[in-house]
Design a protein that fits this description.
Elements lengths: L13 H26 L12 E3 H4 L2 H24 L5 H6 L10 H5 L4 E9 L2 E9 L7 E7 L2 E7 L18 E4 L4
Parallel strand pairs: 1-6
Antiparallel strand pairs: 2-3, 3-4, 4-5, 5-6
Length: 183
């Protein structure tokens, strides 16, 4: 009968095994970090056009409030215009909807007491409306809320003196488009 041979294999020890696992984990982390860094791109905000300004960096706190009111009003006007099939008059926005900045309240006075006029236009076959705000205070800026085919834009001009005649060409007349942030 054959007798088996017993061979004793010494264990590598927990230190060597732990070191191997730690080196493997470190190699995985280093490789992963290399992939992430290689794919990382710094996204720079797109540059603004020459006629655009960042509203919250350029405007005074009072004007920022008026800008915010116009952004909210733009959404409401687009919704009202879509439901009724016609753009609402500034008087309707002030009285029925009590919509700032058209409603003549304390904030309206503090922000220049603008008198709002609606100017309808169809340019290039697209419906377009401009709500032009002429300030009662000569030191306040003029504002124009332009809704072009349902897309609003907010424009500002300091000391222009001549009312908006059309929605196109505002930049050529010294108007600056106010944007919330570079997009």
């Amino acid at each position: 009968m054959k007798t088996g041979c017993v061979q004793e294999i010494p264990s590598a020890g927990h230190r060597a095994e732990s070191r191997g696992v730690a080196l493997a984990a470190l190699a995985i982390v280093v490789l992963w970090a290399g992939v992430v860094l290689a794919r990382h791109r710094t996204a720079e905000p797109p540059a603004l056009a020459g006629y655009q300004r960042t509203a919250f960096a350029e405007l005074s706190p009072v004007e920022q409030g008026l800008f915010a009111d116009l952004r909210v009003a733009a959404d409401e006007i687009v919704a009202l215009g879509g439901e009724a099939g016609a753009w609402p008059e500034p008087a309707e926005l002030a009285e029925e909807a009590a919509l700032a900045p058209f409603a003549q309240d304390v904030a309206w006075r503090r922000r220049g007491a603008h008198v709002w006029t609606r100017i309808d236009a169809t340019e290039s076959g697209r419906p377009r409306v401009v709500y032009y705000g002429r300030p009662a205070d000569s030191g306040a800026a003029e504002w124009a809320l332009v809704i072009d085919d349902g897309k609003p834009g907010i424009w500002r001009r300091q000391g222009g003196g001549v009312a908006v005649r059309a929605a196109s060409g505002l930049a050529a007349e010294g108007w600056l488009e106010m944007v919330p942030s570079p997009e």
